[in-house]
């Protein structure tokens, strides 16, 4: 991975962490669930970019958030 790709991955990690912080801070459970799902999807994309194993997320992507 080149330096530019590493910078992109670091920004992605930052966005995933921001989603997790927002999910903890807000009171709306459905919005919180969406933010946590977004963080998981970003982390899965990072693993794909780094050539690692990717967890199966398709069942979560199409499931409505739990209330």
What report would you give on this structure?
It is a single chain. The protein is mainly α. It has one domain. It has 3 helices and no strands. Helix 1 packs antiparallel against helix 2 (29-49). The longest helix is centred in the first third of the chain and has 23 residues, at 3-25.
Topology, element by element:
Layout: H1 3-25, H2 29-49, H3 58-61
Helix pairs in contact: 1-2
* Shape call: elongated
Instruction: Give the radius of gyration.
Output: 13 Å
Low-confidence stretches: 58-62
Count of the domains: 1
Main beta sheet: strand number and arrangement?
none
Q: What is the helix tally?
A: 3
| Ends distance | 40 Å
Task: Give the integer mean of the pLDDT values.
Answer: 85
Tally of extended strands?
Answer: 0
By secondary-structure content and strand pairing, the structural class works out as mainly alpha
List SSEs in N-to-C order: HHH
Roughly what fraction of the amino acids lie in strands? under 5%
Briefly summarize what is shown.
About 70% of the residues lie in helices and about 0% in strands.
């Amino acid at each position: 991975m080149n330096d530019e790709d590493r910078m992109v991955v670091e920004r992605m990690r930052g966005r995933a962490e921001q989603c997790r912080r927002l999910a903890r801070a807000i009171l709306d459970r459905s919005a919180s669930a969406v933010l946590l799902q977004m963080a998981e999807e970003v982390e899965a994309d990072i693993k794909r970019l780094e050539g690692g194993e990717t967890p199966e997320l398709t069942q979560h992507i199409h499931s409505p958030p739990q209330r």
